[in-house]
Amino acid sequence: MIDARRSALLLRAISLSLFVLLLPLFAFAATEGAMEMLDLTGHWAGILSLLIFIAAYALVIGEEVIHLRKSKPVIVAAGLIWVLVAIASIQAGDTERAQLAIRHNLLEFVELFLFLLAAMTYINTMQERGVFDVLRVWLVTQEFSLRKIFWITGGLAFVISPLADNLTTAMLMATVAVAVGGRNTRFIAIACINIVVAANAGGAFSPFGDITTLMVWQKGLVQFQEFFVLFLPSLVNWLVTGVILSFAISKEQPEPITDHAELQHGAWVVVGLFIITIAMAVAMHNVLHLPPVLGMMTGLGFLKLFGYYLARRDVRIAQGHELQMVESSALGVSAAHEGEKQHSSQIFDIYHSLQQAEWDTLMFFYGVIMCVGGLGAFGYLVVGSELMYEGLGPTQANIIVGFASAIVDNIPVMFAVLQMSPDMSQGQWLLVTLTAGVGGSMLSIGSAAGVAVMGTARGVYTFFSHLKWSWAILLGYIASIATHLAVNASLFN
């Protein structure tokens, strides 16, 4: 019998392969049309690039089984694909096209990479200062009923994810569910489903909530304040599913838990600097018309300066403890406590927070952007745009994007849509932002939040425990789309 993890991987592999393997057939059909641009979709190099992409993404899908980090195959594939782009372009008599195209894609990656690196460093520093631990301990020690914990963790996931991103938020809330649930595996599984749905929904109405929304904002297709019209559709997405799931949660009291955590010095200053950094990123983009990454990197500089103060403070404290130990030793008194020794050795290092960034995710992001950009240079994204957005219409195509995000992953799907750059109204761009963000909730493997929670609640929150409630998540997905189409109808003109 194939276990749940292998079944999930098999589903993704089959779906991706069917989608990508059909692209060459569509491409040959498209070459018969009147395409004005240089079309290399029928070139041997283009077809080989598709096969390389399929092979690389098959390895990405099998990461949990073969234990090969997902960034490695896509980075190699990206290099091979762009070599083929250059060869095909030279054979077509154009020696500049590949160079210009790759520089464009590299610029897009660098902006997003630096933005995410700054945000991740802030989140890791807040975690190191104990901000998230204090919140977690407060929740698990309040003796709330299981149903209250269900709604509190879901609500906090929805509220925190717009700032702290859906992955970090989902992992934090999942640890609370696991700690409170104890041996009640049914509660843990359902609470984790609720957390994943809420985190993804919360991330859909904020540029900082998910990588896909960040990409749309960085592209300038939706302004910062315009994302918030998705608040109600996102809330509906979570509440419809949450209400259905709540009927499976009892009102019993969990086993009492005692735990302790405290904020480290400067914790609230870091939180304040993070808020200021976000404000600077928004101001850079909206007021000065500069890339928002400039505001984020400036804010990272402020954090590094504050980190210098924290490090110097820790050094002074450590030196004070050492002096006290020397004096006590001279007097023959053992006055130094073990806790003081441990504290004196912990010198704050901002570069430790930088090291803790999700480097595999960032490198995977590079590989995906370059791979999809390479396929776009061959002309495949133009073909995909014509098939989806001109053949089906933008509304149907954007709804399909949500289902594709659940199966393949929302990052490559959204980047492909951005590269296609279909001519759509603002309402449609917001629709695809919504569907790509919340569509991944339909499967546990459909979003970074779901994959992270599967690791946090390993063996309890699984592919099949999530799949059992996919029908409820689908209802929330449909309700959120209907809400957006109704409430924001004026944006579709």
Question: Looking at the structure, what is the overall shape?
Answer: globular
Distance between the termini: 52 Å
Biggest β-sheet, characterized? none
Q: For the residues shown, what is the average pLDDT?
A: 80
- The structural domain count equals 3
Q: In DSSP terms, counting alpha (H) and pi (I) runs of 4 or more, how many helices? A: 23
- Nearest-angstrom radius of gyration? 25 Å
Order of SSEs: HHHHHHHHHHHHHHHHHHHHHHH
Total E-strand runs: 0
Beta-strand residue fraction: under 5%
Summing up helix and strand content along with how strands pair, one would put the structural category as mainly alpha
In short:
By secondary structure, the chain is mainly α. The protein is built from 23 helices and no strands.
Topology:
Elements (H helix, E strand, L loop, with lengths): L3 H27 L13 H18 L1 H4 L4 H21 L5 H32 L2 H10 L5 H19 L1 H16 L3 H19 L7 H8 L12 H16 L20 H20 L5 H39 L7 H7 L5 H6 L3 H20 L1 H11 L3 H14 L2 H11 L5 H14 L8 H9 L6 H5 L2 H18 L6
Helix pairs in contact: 1-2, 1-17, 2-4, 2-16, 4-5, 4-16, 5-12, 5-13, 5-16, 6-8, 7-8, 7-9, 7-11, 8-9, 8-21, 9-11, 10-19, 11-23, 12-13, 13-14, 16-19, 17-19, 18-19, 18-20, 20-23
